[in-house]
Amino acid sequence: MALDQVRKPFTVACVALPCSASAQPRDTSTIEVAAPGQLYDYVVHVQNTYDYRYNPEVRQDRILLARRVARPICSKMQIVGESKFKTEIFGLTTGKPDYVVYLKCLPLRSRIPR
After folding, report:
1. By residue range, what is the domain housing residue 78?
2. Residue 58 domain flag
3. What are the pLDDT digits (tens) for 66-104?
């Protein structure tokens, strides 16, 4: 097989593979159901990039964004905790940390007229 015939597919693969290798969408917030037996119901991965009126380093901003993301699923919730994960690879790359907020859904009180 000639080198010219291999070069084009190799170049396409080198460009396409890094794009499809990331499982999580970048610069967005996602929500997952927590594993059974946890003290929380949902895990919200909040975005780690700056946006208009959002600073990922400010705790109140992360909590507010997590509540907004989870509101369609759980209208009344309690923040159980949060975590910060470093994404840098020692000596190779520096990256922004990933922020995670843990939420517990609270039962809605029924409004029974007296």
Report:
1. 25-105
2. yes
3. 999 999 998 899 999 999 988 877 777 778 889 999 999
